[in-house]
TrEMBL record:
<keyword id="KW-0547">Nucleotide-binding</keyword>
<dbReference type="InterPro" id="IPR003439">
    <property type="entry name" value="ABC_transporter-like_ATP-bd"/>
</dbReference>
<dbReference type="GO" id="GO:0005524">
    <property type="term" value="F:ATP binding"/>
</dbReference>
<dbReference type="InterPro" id="IPR050763">
    <property type="entry name" value="ABC_transporter_ATP-binding"/>
</dbReference>
<dbReference type="Pfam" id="PF00005">
    <property type="entry name" value="ABC_tran"/>
</dbReference>
<dbReference type="InterPro" id="IPR017871">
    <property type="entry name" value="ABC_transporter-like_CS"/>
</dbReference>
<dbReference type="GO" id="GO:0016887">
    <property type="term" value="F:ATP hydrolysis activity"/>
</dbReference>
<dbReference type="InterPro" id="IPR027417">
    <property type="entry name" value="P-loop_NTPase"/>
</dbReference>
<keyword id="KW-0067">ATP-binding</keyword>
<keyword id="KW-0813">Transport</keyword>
<dbReference type="InterPro" id="IPR003593">
    <property type="entry name" value="AAA+_ATPase"/>
</dbReference>
<protein>
    <submittedName>
        <fullName>Multidrug ABC transporter ATP-binding protein</fullName>
    </submittedName>
</protein>
<feature type="domain" description="ABC transporter">
    <location>
        <begin position="5"/>
        <end position="234"/>
    </location>
</feature>
Length: 309
């Protein structure tokens, strides 16, 4: 089965010559969750806007559910649900009418039962007759999500969906994402909450300067690029690292009570056994040992720094 989203050499250059997208290639399978990470101005929103038909590309192709976003834009757009960063809703419309109208705009038959299910899941059912202007910012964000889901899209784009919203909505949002995945909906999200991407994404994409630096399965990425740290608690503090232990991978804490050893998880030899033997030779007594894996955020920061260098 062909990927539900196929992007090849997608480019976007503005009139002033600014290249917002520089030949992006990306394939996403049906039912997959892809988290797209990148700093402000990296090209995340431009990529989403281009695939969704808001921005016209200057080169390359993109297919959504097998439909070209330019030559078959109606079919492509009907397969897409979009939750944008900006809240742009008709203030005097009710929640119910706004959601039902969006479904109708995509040519879908009336299905009040489905819309009720969506609104209930988003804790909007008791607000269905309220005008948008009466809602809080978090509730308006929920309405955007309801509208995006109203026409049963196969691909759902979430552009910073939980930015500036309460913890409860954020939790609800990720539960909804997990549910949609089980129904075969493909989800592409951008987020600044990297811990959320780490928790729910199948694959991670990192974009910077309009270029896709990598797209990789989350666990494989963390195994390949993640480092582990061995923290050694000392019974007696050290003033400095003894000469026999000097290593770029070994650091002493400011208070002298801990030694921190960094090592590559993929190396055949971690060097831990050699280190422990050296500590014993130096007469250094340990009180405890613990390890930690580098986080996705640390990997992301390193990748962006490398691309900017």
């Amino acid at each position: 089965m062909a990927p539900v989203l196929q992007i090849k050499n997608l480019q976007k250059t503005y009139d002033g010559g600014f290249e917002a997208l520089k030949g992006v290639d990306l394939e996403i399978e049906e039912g997959e969750i892809l988290a797209l990470l990148g700093p402000n101005g990296a090209g995340k929103t431009t990529l989403i806007s281009t695939v969704c038909g808001i921005t016209v590309p200057t080169g390359g192709t993109a297919l959504v559910a097998g439909h070209d976003i330019i030559t078959e834009y109606r079919q492509a757009r009907s397969a897409i649900g979009l939750v944008p960063q900006e809240i742009n809703l008709e203030p005097f419309e009710t929640v119910w009418n706004a959601t039902r109208l969006t479904r109708g705009l995509f040519g879908k038959r009336r299905d009040d039962k489905l819309l009720e299910q969506i609104l209930r899941r988003l804790s909007l059912w008791d607000k269905k007759d309220s005008q948008i202007k009466e809602l809080s910012g978090g509730m308006k964000r929920r309405v955007l999500i309801a509208k995006a889901l109203s026409h049963e899209p196969r691909v759902l784009f979430l552009d910073e969906p939980t930015a500036g919203v309460d913890v409860e909505l954020r939790k609800d949002m990720w539960e909804i994402v997990a549910d949609l995945k089980t129904q075969g909906v493909t989800i592409i999200l951008t987020t600044h909450y990297i811990e959320e991407a780490e928790a729910i994404a199948d694959r991670i994409g990192v974009i910077n300067g309009g270029q896709l630096l990598l797209v990789e399965e989350k666990n494989a990425l963390m195994a390949r690029m993640g480092k582990k740290q061995l923290t050694i608690d000392l019974r007696d503090p050290l003033q400095s690292i003894p000469a026999g232990l000097k290593s770029d991978a070994l650091e002493l804490s400011e208070d002298g009570t801990q030694l921190v050893y960094s090592y590559d998880t993929n190396s055949e030899r971690t060097g831990i056994t050699t280190l422990l033997a050296a500590l014993s030779r130096e007469g250094i007594v340990l009180s405890d040992i613990s390890t930690r894996q580098s986080s996705l955020e640390e990997i992301f920061v390193d990748l962006v720094k490398e691309s900017a260098a």
